[in-house]
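Q: I'm writing a short methods note and want an example of a predicted protein-small molecule complex. Could you take the sequence and the SMILES for fe (ii) ion and return the bound structure as tokens? Please keep the output block clean; save any remarks for afterwards.
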Amino acid sequence: MTLDFSRDPEYPPYNVYPPKWSFDNERAWQLYRRAKREQWDEEDIDWNKIKEIASGLDRKQRLAIAYWWSLLSNFDNATPVFAYALVKSHELHLNTAVKGVLTTITYDENRHNVMCGLAINSVLPGYPFDFKPQDEFENKVRLNTLWTWYNGARYWRAYLEAYSKYTLDVLFTSFMMGEAAATTVFTTMSKGSKIEEMRKAFRNTAVDETRHYAFTHLIMTDGASRMTDEQRKLVTKQVRAGFVFLSLITYKPPKEFWRLPPWFEEVNERMEDLARGAGFYIPELKEKEEAWRTALVRVGATLARYGVKIPAIPELGITGEEIEDLKEDDFVPVF
Ligand SMILES: [Fe+2]
Ligand SMILES: [Fe+2]
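A: Understood, no commentary inside the block.
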């Protein structure tokens, strides 16, 4: 191929080259600046103090706390989720500040994931892979974790494929429900925890999740007026997908999507009670329902302004658009 160097080169589409900068989206720049300001270090949490507290707990209580963090890590394993979104945003040459915010969210999610590992390592090192169950119940607990992660693997496949099906603004708007749910979870947990260092970890995480929510809100308000009816319907569906996916940790896993052992819920409830008994705060079912309602009202109010309906969530007595054909491939929510 001969190249005519006297002309400008032609760049291939969907390529991160050429580098380009834009400085006009002030709201996105403000959010990017806030993201840089609000950074924190997971190693500033006094994990030794947590180890000390854990050493005073009995085995099953320690297992219950490690187990909860293992479930959380299913959702906070989001570094590659955002790293992938970041690559896509560069290929599509989105606004410089938007790419900057996505870079910080990728970093945030890595911090959240490392935090899950540090928490497990402080209360029950080696859980779940090096954990040796002492009875049938402990083995079921271990299997609960491993099968939750199995579903995470199914989600990851669907997530990657979603990029060939949806436009970026529809995708990013779909992240809204997850971020709203995450914000509520961490805020309530930080208020309730009796273990001071975990309180701190949750409080800091809530700051991050609030900012992630602000990001989805920004994308929504920037792009929603251009959305077609079909795209609006997709967002409604994704709000339902967000509820179904995140309910494992924030409510109870609905029938859709999840493939879990038959004992999952029973064992999960026992674990929650054991963790509560150890001063680790997990909201009761009523409180979880209330948190979801609050999150849905919040998301619903924003969506309504742009003609996007909220889905029916019969589990919470919320009426809305009936979503019947939610398939495995539809799962793209993030935490
Ligand atoms: Fe997170
Ligand atoms: Fe998040």
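A: Remarks, as requested: The chain has a mean pLDDT of 93. The pocket of fe (ii) ion (ligand 2) is lined by residues 179, 182, 209, 212, 335 (CB under 6 Å).
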